[in-house]
Amino acid sequence: MSDATLHAVQHDPDSFAVQIADQVESFIVAVTEVARGDEPGSAIPFLLLEVSQLLLAGGRLGAHEDIVPDERYEADTGPEPDDVDELRERFAVLLDPADVYSEVFDPYVPRSTPVACRISDDLADIITDLRHGMAHYRAGRVTEALWWWQFSYFSNWGPTASAALRALQSLLAHIRTGSPLEELDGLDTDTPGDDESLAEEAGRVMAAEIAAPLGLRAERSRAAAAERSRAGRS
Length: 234
What we know:
32% of the residues are buried. It is globular, with a radius of gyration of 20 Å. By secondary structure, it is mainly alpha-helical. The protein has a two-stranded antiparallel ribbon. Helix 2 packs antiparallel against helix 3 and helix 2 crosses helix 5.
């Protein structure tokens, strides 16, 4: 698609391409800002909102007829941004110790074994995919950008975002109900640990850093943690 055509598309707010590109760019900007860690107490609900909105764009791409690129071979988008690893590390610190979660890759594979995933890895991977398509879009290759976003929605960032959304929703549910995470050991392959101490630490961190800014009482979270601990020992 020529620059002139791109110019025309960008001036039509009702264009499918413009709407998808706007949602993609909004996600990249917003989530990158969250990674700065300036407001850790609102990080989880904000990420939940942003991933939910991105998946709306993904749903529209998924429901759209197959997009066929103009060229047989994908044009070179140039070097990838070199800040992805930094973003990944920032998210890992921001979400610790609740970064690791359990996920089944394909719910239609019988007796699938859950595997360990990280929200920080998910967010970094999603941003990488979206940026790749955005590079095509900004270069005027609108059809190529839409093809990439649609293709990678089915093959990578869509399932990844869906898994991250479930994890974030579960985290927020734990926070709102004052319930610490029951079990983290066994999900992370880095270092072994004790189930009870990991759950206790997760509860403390969520109560101290996340629950309070959301208007929840830390005392309630600690009471719930103590009650669960007593029930587990009985």
